[in-house]
Amino acid sequence: AVDAQRLLGRIRELGAVGRDSEGRLIRLAASDTDRLGRDLFVGWLRQAGLDVAIDRVGNIFGIWQSPDNAGQAPLLIGSHIDTVIDAGIYDGCYGVLAGLEVIETLKASGFSPPRPVAIAAFTNEEGVRYTPDMMGSLVHAGGIGFETVLAAVGTDGSVLGQELARIGYAGDKEPGFLKPHAYLELHIEQGPVLEREGVPIGAVENLQGISWQRITIDGVANHAGTTPMSMRSDAGHAAARVITFLHDRAKASNTPTVATVGTIRFEPNAINVIPSQAVFTVDLRHPDEQRLQAEEAALAACLEQLAVAEGVTISVERLARFEPVIFDIRIVELIEAAAKNRGLGVKRMTSGAGHDAQMMARIAPAAMIFVPSAGGISHNPREHTEDADLVAGANILLDVVTDLAK
Amino acid sequence: AVDAQRLLGRIRELGAVGRDSEGRLIRLAASDTDRLGRDLFVGWLRQAGLDVAIDRVGNIFGIWQSPDNAGQAPLLIGSHIDTVIDAGIYDGCYGVLAGLEVIETLKASGFSPPRPVAIAAFTNEEGVRYTPDMMGSLVHAGGIGFETVLAAVGTDGSVLGQELARIGYAGDKEPGFLKPHAYLELHIEQGPVLEREGVPIGAVENLQGISWQRITIDGVANHAGTTPMSMRSDAGHAAARVITFLHDRAKASNTPTVATVGTIRFEPNAINVIPSQAVFTVDLRHPDEQRLQAEEAALAACLEQLAVAEGVTISVERLARFEPVIFDIRIVELIEAAAKNRGLGVKRMTSGAGHDAQMMARIAPAAMIFVPSAGGISHNPREHTEDADLVAGANILLDVVTDLAK
Ligand SMILES: NC(=O)NCCC(=O)O
Ligand SMILES: NC(=O)NCCC(=O)O
């Protein structure tokens, strides 16, 4: 079994890094606080005697290999340590630190695996500062060129490549240098299912599709007091129409569609000026590709109709688009077997969130283990998972890694 | 008649001051660019041989008085030279520069008025950086204490009193030191009425009521991918509901209600996080106080219902509230007579915008002269009034000032 105190202590220690003056946890990808988190993690990798490798997009790898197995394709465990704004401490970090914990436990046990075992912390999984999300693992899987993502411009106008160089994490390894035999990721569920059903372990068999778009609506600035309602081209009002349309449609559908407008900005953003421009993001998800396409089409039709009705012009930029992924059934079955073996309830389930496993599934058999999230809350400082569940999840990871490394 | 070239030249010269790198005109109250505009204006006041006085809230006065009339209550002409963001060059500046032009014309003509004539540029008429709007004239009229407004915190976190001191316009005159005999303001209409009716001069007989509120909606941040629609408390969606409610209600009413949401901000403002907070402003106006109260009550009821339906908490802050104002009928008649005398069409009308005259009407007989705005566009760089209309308006001001100064 893993060293529960070491694991829990590290989760808390990393969770204390990157707090702002109000105590909010903000470790956006390639920021100064991300550097602090990375430095702490790399220190632990070295302490554990692992080989540390950093690639050109800042993905960090801790590799446990021996002269005997160095030629073999490694078993890779991974997740991320970047966070959203005002984050909880578990999202991503739990999986990375549990992976390290599993390797240290196996090393200490005298186990000599036939293939290397490695832990990865991928750059910019959250997609908050730079899009798309799951960026580092997408590059590793060959889904996008590293030059492209290094040129990505962030919400703050920064350029990813410059930021990685600045914080000292523009590595020299070629992205994708490590070809995994299989990929495993342990993560908090971030949703309400496991808690509601009283099941401690999720064996994640698929992951829903994700569509991110940035919509820009251009209207005409005019005086809030003198302009009759009938003479307005109000970009802000048109944006509000899109938000209520998406919400009502997703809520009324009898499928698990989710639709979110998480960011918005008005120009000129003055109290007595009708907005000339509204820019906002749309996050649409569905486990079924056909339905996700239908949701995108409905949004496009809404925008077209709105442009005419409101006298505005609308442009759309695609920020991320990932089809649903089905994970490797053999690994899903190994997770179920490990849970049963330890007397733990287990449930096959879908992931509502995007994960690095979704990208790695393109190049290796992959699956994920979930543990419950209290109240289904994530991307919120109230994100919480019970210690017992965190430790149980890490032990299931240990068992499956032991199986797969053989 | 006024010197048309001098007037038009100054309007353009002042309109070139305070441009940002994209060429946008931004002279927010008490900012660095406002300082540049003020310095230019004060230079012109001195050139004209006027006595310059600046009060504690930064209101600027140029006073034309003689030993003969120094004891009399002055006739005051006024408006403002602060602007919105990405403004046109006429809003406010036209009235201030025409007032100066009228005084210079009268001085040069050898006219010796029985009372002083003064021109005022009031601080922060726009209300974009600090609320309420018409701040300087409200203080002058005794509607709010100067200590209160000097403590006002701006949209950028600045404090008005500190900013006025920094730019050198924290004057030493007691606010209200100048008690006007009457008050006149010339302004572009900023709306579509005069142009549509082909009338060059508006005699403004009343001004609609203004209600400004800041609404804060608190929901629960959660993950955009994992949180079912039925489990959300989405502050951003709730804000969008308010925006569409206000718009639909105003548009459907058969009264001239106008409703505008000009500013918005989401927290944490991340693409995959359900907004925990939305903060936005509401600008509601109506010429009839009872109807304005009904609009405010409808908004309050909407918020109450929304709080329950969406599981959010809502708080409301009042930023400005001014009842409709009826201007002095004798001055309105003088304006009509002056227009007829010059063979110009004239129309009695309502002002849709707020103006300093609205505040000054509390302490002196007041009225306003309007000239047409092309396309009814204002608070927009495309704001435009034909030179002939600008000159005609200034000549009507000259005539009415000549009458009232007697
Ligand atoms: N697990 C997680 O929160 N990933 C971030 C990408 C997303 O799903 O929005
Ligand atoms: N005239 C003018 O634009 N005033 C600003 C205050 C308002 O919003 O009406």
Automatic annotation (TrEMBL), chains A, B:
Cofactors required: Zn(2+)
Protein EC: 3.5.1.87
Binding positions (Zn(2+) 1): 80, 91, 187
Alphabetical UniProt keywords: Hydrolase, Metal-binding, Zinc
EC main group: hydrolase
GO molecular function: hydrolase activity, acting on carbon-nitrogen (but not peptide) bonds, in linear amidines; metal ion binding; N-carbamoyl-L-amino-acid hydrolase activity
Listed InterPro entries: Amidase_Cbmase (IPR010158), Bact_exopeptidase_dim_dom (IPR036264), Peptidase_M20 (IPR002933), Peptidase_M20_dimer (IPR011650)
Keyword flag Zinc: yes
Keyword Transport among record annotations: no
Cofactor annotation remark: Binds 2 Zn(2+) ions per subunit.
Residues involved in Zn(2+) 2 binding: 91, 126, 379
Annotated Peptidase M20 dimerisation domain residues: 208-307
A Pfam family that the UniProt record links to this protein: M20_dimer
Similarity section: Belongs to the peptidase M20 family.
Name this protein carries in UniProt: N-carbamoyl-L-amino-acid hydrolase
Organism classification: Bacteria, Pseudomonadati, Pseudomonadota, Alphaproteobacteria, Hyphomicrobiales
